[in-house]
Design a protein that fits this description.
The protein contains five helices and 48 strands. The protein has a 24-stranded antiparallel β-barrel. Strands 1, 3, 6, 7, 8, 9, 12, 13 and 14 form a nine-stranded mixed beta sheet that branches. The protein has a five-stranded mixed beta sheet with strand order 2-4-5-11-10, with no helix packed on it. It is globular and about 100 Å long. The N and C termini lie far apart (about 70 Å).
Length: about 900
């Protein structure tokens, strides 16, 4: 009964949140005057240039963390100058104990140690800002800020200049920001938004020039302002960065394989660049880009029917990615659809999607990725609040090379493909209302019948809006999207039978598998209503629907269609110190799924908390309950199946990150009713910073599960399907080591290594016989010992249901020990602003055995007994501006 009443708690709290609204006055907006100078200051961090005397000090910083609207423990002041080409800032960070100033030296964008952050809303649109962060050590960080402060993109790397120094009064930062790195309209007089933030690292204290209350629904619209900037222009400019690359690989020689000779060499060149189309529109372009210095994706064993989501790491696609975001289910309570997006840049340059079969005497050379011929991005925002983003990319047709006793032939494995993404948004009333749209297109030039399984055309589009009122504390938002894919019947059959929809399910009535189709279309929509404010109680409620035919996986990422989702989230915040806490956060929520027939698939409830203690340690955790549910995907094209309810518990503790040694540790426990599943996991990490220039960290994760129902295969027996499952005992252990040595902010050495081992043993093989039975144990039949014959040497398991002595069907032997090691050593030298030399050594080791028994010491030794694949590369780029 307690669970029954608990599920109504979010509704009660949401009602209370709606009833307790009381609008608070926004804080008074500060202003500072920038002064023109004919003689620019020398950027040396010493503040001894007489031109600084022209400007007055701006003061009055206010503490916002941990205390709100209190005097900071250390004072800060600043001045601003400008000339025809640059903006200059002098920041004096006073400190009564200069010996305790944290001077951690790090590579760009680490945001650590004592620092000051300068945020400039040069568009003056109350929505976006450019951020420049100066650390006391002289290290730089930067990012773009969008969505009124709710999105940050640290991939933006502008050209700007910084010097710092320390004296008996604290520390000083002198900053020069070329106007060419900002975007603004051609107004005679400029009025820009401004926020200056200081971090006092040892106290984890933050103070700001413009006071913005904690929990404000957005921040950029509350910035202070810079006045006095007149008759300036960002200027027409062209930035070019050509690069050259030399590559050498060493790997295990394979006798008889002409492609595995043990070594290979190569060289290439390319060009990256930026062109200012106007004061506020920029064209980014790249020809034959290379991302050899980018870290590899983390190791994993994916036993689900769904594709793994990997974060984008390539600089060209990471920078400015927020412009191209269109999340169909962009709600707080979003369950298993939180990563979905109409644009998933990992599709561009992906691994070829076709692997040609080979005979016993044939060898194949398969391309690792698809070559990107060119990529262009146009982005910017007009003075009327119209944002525009366009991306156009072309990837080459790729061929595998097959060798048969010296005779070689090419087989197409990926067609020439064009990817287009267009995003547009219009702000009204300084961002209180936004309306936008997005359109994407994928067109493949498919000439080989081997590639008929790919869609030849794929189009998606969407409209979105957001309106806020009552000083932006209340909001109503939503979106609608559509998709259409076209191709040969093979491609559309693949789409209909994919894990996103499974139209072949025998119990589905409202859609059907049509093998004659050459196109498939669908639609979706989301609406949400919420309250986000400075008050303690907040909420959001939302509903999402996706038709069975919706599919945007050609250029986007989507796991599920054929779903209706509803959820409500309620949160309670205590933002200022009390008792033993600096802050405290608690939320509760529920969410439900139906399919398009209206059948309830699952009901879920959840409680989360997050708190920081006054000693700067942090703790967070969650409890989640899923009631008895129905899965339409577990049998991978078979009928829907009932599943017992589950409960999950997470708890994490993080120590004070300002210390030279800090750690985190946490655990996970999960189980399913009727003893059908249990799992546990541990994640822990330790970071040591013996000196300001060196950081070493180790992270470890351990996961163990015993799942009574793990899918193996679907086979046919006497024209009846056999949905074959087994109980899986899986254990996984992984480590991540990182060592960063910063010689100076421009010269860094970084190494990471990731050993990973996982073992899975299958037993109690069974077939699903009655997926809708009331009792869990009645939903399947366990194979008897005489019906199953495993043969690890042959790599198969044979099934003999009629006891005839002849196998009725067989499947691959499933037990596994997966071992993988990935490492990357990168020396990065920015020998002049924007120009970089990379020296990279990457190593990979991957192997498997069909054992299934987890023995950590044996598996680790076996991992490092695998022959490595080493890649050495030198990449040289040179930046210049025209």
């Amino acid at each position: 009964m307690k669970r029954k009443y608990l599920q109504y708690l979010p509704l009660v709290l949401a009602f209370a949140a709606a009833m307790q609204y009381a609008a608070a006055q926004e804080p008074e907006k500060k202003t500072v005057n920038a002064v023109y100078t004919d003689t620019p200051p020398e950027i040396d961090g010493l503040m001894n240039d007489t031109c600084w005397n022209k400007a007055a000090w701006a003061t009055g910083f206010v503490q916002i963390q941990p205390q709100e609207n209190k005097q900071p423990s250390q004072q800060t002041s600043f001045k601003i100058l400008f000339d025809d080409n640059n903006l200059y800032l002098l920041i004096r960070a006073f400190d009564t104990d200069p010996g305790k100033i944290s001077r951690i030296i790090s590579r760009r964008d680490n945001f650590t140690g004592d620092y000051v952050e300068v945020d400039i809303d040069s568009y003056s649109d109350k929505q976006t800002a450019f951020s420049f962060v100066a650390s006391a050590s002289g290290s730089k960080s930067d990012m773009t800020i969008t969505d009124d402060g709710n999105n940050e993109d640290t991939s933006w790397n502008p050209i700007w200049f910084l010097k710092t120094s320390i004296d008996d009064q604290g520390w000083i930062a002198e900053i020069k920001i070329p106007l060419s790195q900002l975007r603004f309209d051609k107004n005679e007089v400029q009025t820009w938004g401004l926020q200056i933030t200081r971090q006092l690292f040892r106290n984890q204290e933050r103070s700001t020039w413009q006071y913005i209350p904690k929990g404000s629904p957005g921040t950029v619209h509350l910035f202070g302002e810079i006045h006095g900037i007149k008759r300036v222009s960002s200027g027409k400019r062209l930035e070019l960065m050509p690069f050259t690359l030399a590559r050498m690989e060493h790997f295990k020689r394979e006798e008889g394989n002409p492609f595995m000779t043990g070594k290979s060499y190569g060289a290439s060149a390319g060009l990256d660049g930026k062109a200012a189309i106007s004061n506020n529109f920029m064209l980014d372009f790249s020809f034959n880009p290379d991302f050899g210095q980018v870290e590899a994706d983390p190791s994993e064993v994916n036993l689900t029917a769904f594709e793994t989501y990997f974060s984008e790491r390539r600089p060209f696609f990471v920078e400015g990615k927020n412009i191209f975001q269109f999340q169909p289910t962009n709600t707080i309570v979003i369950g298993n659809m939180y990563q979905d997006n109409l644009f998933y840049s990992r599709r561009i340059g992906r691994s070829p999607q076709y692997c040609p079969p080979t005979a016993t005497d044939e060898y194949v050379k398969q391309p690792e990725g698809t070559s990107i011929i060119s990529a262009l991005k146009l982005s910017g925002k007009t003075k009327n609040g119209l944002s525009l983003g366009i991306m156009e990319s072309v990837t080459a047709g790729e061929n595998a090379l097959i060798d048969s006793s010296g005779y070689r032939k090419k087989v197409a494995v990926e067609p020439l493909t064009n990817y287009f993404v267009g995003r547009i948004q219009q702000d009204f009333n300084k961002g209180e209302t936004t309306v936008g749209g997005m359109f994407t297109a994928v067109n493949r030039d498919i000439t080989s019948p081997d590639l008929y399984f790919l869609n030849s055309e794929a189009y998606t589009g969407g409209l979105d809006f957001r309106h806020s009122w009552k000083e932006r504390t209340w909001y109503l938002a939503g979106n609608a999207e559509f998709s259409e894919i076209k191709g040969k019947t093979t491609a559309i059959i693949n789409a209909q039978t994919s894990s996103a929809r499974y139209f072949q399910r025998p119990d589905i009535r409202y859609v059907r598998l049509d093998s004659s189709r050459t196109s498939l279309s669908g639609y979706g929509a989301t609406f949400k209503l919420g309250r986000s404010s400075k008050s303690r109680l907040q909420f959001e409620t939302s509903v999402t629907l996706r038709s069975p035919g919706l599919d945007f996986n050609d250029i986007g990422y989507m796991r599920y269609s054929d779903v209706i989702h509803h959820g409500t989230w309620v949160a309670y915040y205590i933002r200022n110190p009390f008792f033993i806490f600096n802050n405290f956060y608690l939320n509760t929520n529920y969410w439900m799924y139906w399919n398009y027939s209206g059948k309830l698939l699952s009901f879920n409830t959840n409680i989360n908390f997050n708190a920081q203690f006054k000693n700067l340690w942090r703790i967070n955790g969650s409890v989640t309950r899923t009631e008895n549910s129905i899965s339409t995907t577990l049998l991978r094209g078979g009928p829907a199946m009932k599943l017992p309810g589950t409960e999950d518990l997470n708890l994490f503790l993080i120590s004070d990150q300002s210390k030279k040694v800090y750690m985190y540790a946490g655990g996970y426990l999960g189980h399913r009713d009727e003893a059908s599943f249990k799992a546990s996991g541990i994640d822990a990490g330790l970071t040591v910073r013996p000196v300001n220039s060196v950081t070493f960290s180790i992270e470890t994760s351990w996961f163990s599960q015993d799942d009574v129902l793990q899918y193996l295969a679907t086979e046919s027996y006497k024209n009846d399907p056999r949905y074959i499952f087994a109980e899986l005992d899986q254990k996984t252990l992984g480590f991540t080591f990182r060592l960063n040595y910063t010689f100076n902010p421009e010269l860094t050495l970084e190494w990471y290594g990731q050993p990973f081992i996982s073992a899975g043993k299958y037993f109690n093989l069974k077939r699903i016989t009655n997926p809708g039975a009331a009792k869990f144990s009645d939903r399947f039949t366990i194979y008897q010992s005489g019906e199953v014959t495993p043969d690890a040497a042959a790599g198969i398991i044979s099934f003999n249901e009629d006891n005839s002595g002849t196998a009725d069907y067989s499947i691959s032997y499933p037990d596994f020990n997966f071992r993988q090691f990935r490492s990357n050593l990168v020396l990065r030298w920015e020998y002049k602003p924007g120009s970089t030399l990379f020296l990279v050594w990457s190593q990979g080791r991957t192997g498997t055995i069909a054992d299934g028994t987890f023995l950590a010491e044996r598996d680790m030794k076996g991992l490092f007994g695998i022959a490595p694949h080493d890649v050495f590369l030198v990449k040289f780029s040179y930046w210049f501006s025209l």
